[in-house]
């Protein structure tokens, strides 16, 4: 595994978690970075999923078990207290509304598998990108842009962000296919400048859009700047792989590796735990310290239990 991947996973985890801390911060606007974290997550996912070494059924089943095992284990309490079992099973387990990325991955995995297992060269990547751009533009112009929609609801209850999230997965797979070429291409410092420029422009546009509502009609600009920020950051770290690999056994890398290994579990447990910490009415920053500690402990426990359950599942399959 590349060293920079663990760092990217950890950064994505921290950004996503921070974006959910609005109720804990004295200034809710500090809870930012969710869109960047999610985009980074899908980019890394595409990179790591290229190229499957098993048939589709085995590959997809493995992915679903990895997704659903911790989700089901952690949310069993929801099933125990519900009055409508069917609705709970459908919207808390099978297509969990709170964990939108699970629904996205369920749909994206088969499409991604089909594309990358067939001829996946630059031409095919550009064709897929063009199709996604047309789809994005078609839906975008159908939406009522009086409110923020690009990261929330799209059309027919499906999040609009699914489209560019899939593009990022596809781009991640393309980067993995040509990783050595990109490592050579991004050695100069210009990529760092492009990252800073995209990052600064992204937040300037976000702040400006909040103050001047007429800019909501240009929400697609946020999407472009978000993609630009995470892609340049990704490329920046790809170019630093040889340098970063020297720190693979250092304590700081172990921290990134630890957080990166708990990405899924941290995402699953944080909503419930943040709500619980809110109810305690603790002062800032004690509330954040308690919340982060609780999230990490719960994520570690969930990861260990899930890992054992998954091993049992695959052990029975082999038998």
In short:
The protein is mostly helical. The chain has 15 helices and no strands. α1 runs parallel beside α14, α2 (34-49) crosses α11 (219-239) and α6 crosses α8.
Residue share in β-strands: under 5%
Helix count?
15
Mean pLDDT across the residues is 87
Query: Which secondary-structure class do the elements indicate?
Result: mainly alpha
The share of residues in helices is: over 70%
What's the SSE pattern? HHHHHHHHHHHHHHH
Ranges with pLDDT <50 over ≥5 residues? none
Instruction: Count the beta strands.
Output: 0
Largest sheet: none
User: Terminal Cα separation, in Å?
Assistant: 30 Å
Rg, please? 20 Å
Shape: globular
Description:
With 319 residues, this protein is an all-alpha fold. Helix content is 74%, strand content 0%. Helix 1 (3-19) packs antiparallel against helix 2, helix 1 packs parallel to helix 14 (263-279) and helix 2 crosses helix 8. It is globular.
Secondary structure elements and pairings:
Layout (H helix, E strand, L loop, with lengths): L2 H17 L14 H16 L6 H19 L1 H6 L3 H10 L5 H18 L4 H19 L20 H17 L1 H7 L4 H22 L7 H21 L1 H4 L6 H11 L1 H17 L6 H33 L1
Helix pairs in contact: 1-2, 1-13, 1-14, 2-8, 2-11, 3-6, 3-14, 3-15, 6-8, 7-8, 10-11, 14-15
List keywords for this structure.
single chain, 319 residues, mainly alpha, globular
